[in-house]
Specification:
With 295 residues, this protein is of the alpha+beta class. The chain has 2 domains: 85 residues, 2-Layer Sandwich (TATA-Binding Protein), CATH 3.30.310.20; 126 residues, Endonuclease III, domain 1. It has a 5-stranded antiparallel β-sheet with strand order 1-5-4-3-2. The protein has a two-stranded antiparallel sheet with strand order 6-7. Strand 6 and strand 7 form a beta hairpin. Helix 5 runs antiparallel to helix 9, helix 11 packs across helix 12 and helix 13 packs across helix 15. The chain is globular.
Length: 295
């Protein structure tokens, strides 16, 4: 058994840029960032393991006080690889960006940045629901309140770490309490329960999504749940499954970035956006993430 392990990555990769991309709000509750170290609580088969992630020489170092079995190391390695998309070679993407004068500055400005994902599909869908039609600051506050009340909490070396609620815990949320005292809309609470029920019943899972052969089929499975629209489905597929075609059209930040760069004249012109992304086949989601990061 081991208490630490290393994860290699494909160059170009910037741990610093990925670390900085994790900071979105002081209300972020699902990980802690301190002195270039990432602290996170991960559920591995019902066993909650505290990870400390850092960069060391030419690899990612993962440490814990937990004596890990080989199966746990394998799961956590895959988790971190998905979280930071460590196996992606960005060279072809940068070559595409450099062909467009409006985007040619991005490979240098954001060199080595990966899509910082949400490996847990259930968490990713719920986060997309929480963030619907509100600003990011308020969305983080709502997520914190939900996690504090229904998630798992662990005290570790003087640090309080939290894990997102399970589908079963989400099905038990008190809608009256969360609406009347925590500022959740009734529709958000209903949609969260719909998603929890779908995961608890096995209607949706990471494995089931990955078993579907096409992007459209995965998107259709997600949008079959009431409360999950195309934006939420694409956001989830982008952040949880690294699906390259998953462009969250209608996203305010994406529209603003394209407008700022002179790529579109009308922030609501979805057709022009779709034509623009045609030139980046296989890298659409990465272009979205870089455009967000350029703001």
């Amino acid at each position: 058994m081991a208490k630490s392990f290393q994860i290699s990555y494909t160059e170009p990769f910037s741990y610093e840029k990925c670390f900085n991309a994790l900071y979105r709000s002081e209300d972020e509750i699902l990980y802690r960032l301190e002195h270039q170290r990432i602290y996170r609580l991960i559920n591995v088969g019902g066993n909650y393991i505290t990870l400390v992630i850092s960069e060391s020489a030419d690899h990612i170092l993962v440490e814990t006080e937990h004596e890990m079995k080989e199966t746990e190391i394998s799961y956590l390695t895959h988790y971190v690889q998905n979280w930071f998309d460590l196996n992606k070679d960005l060279t072809p993407f940068y070559q595409l960006l450099q062909k467009d004068n409006r985007l040619a500055h991005l490979p240098e400005q954001l060199h080595g940045l990966r899509i910082v994902g949400i490996p847990d599909v259930f968490e990713a869908i719920c986060w997309s629901i929480i963030g619907q039609q509100i600003n990011l600051t308020f969305a983080h506050k709502l997520k914190r309140r939900l996690v504090e009340h229904y998630g798992t909490k662990v005290q570790w070396n003087g640090i309080e770490l939290h894990h997102f609620p399970s589908p079963e815990a989400m099905m038990e949320i008190d809608e009256v309490y969360l609406h009347s005292t925590q500022q959740f809309s009734r529709s958000k609470l209903k949609y969260l329960k719909n998603v929890a029920e779908a995961f608890s019943s096995g209607e949706i899972s990471r494995k089931k999504l990955l078993s579907l052969p096409t992007f459209e089929e995965r998107q259709n499975l997600l949008t079959s749940i009431k409360g999950i629209g195309v934006w939420s489905a694409n956001y989830t597929l982008m952040k949880a499954l690294n699906q390259p075609e998953a462009v969250p059209y209608g996203d305010t930040g994406l529209s603003q970035a394209l407008f700022n760069l002179g790529i579109i004249d009308d922030r609501k012109d979805i057709k022009s956006m779709e034509r623009f992304f045609e030139d980046f086949s296989g890298w659409e989601a990465y272009l979205v993430f870089y455009l967000w990061s350029s703001l």
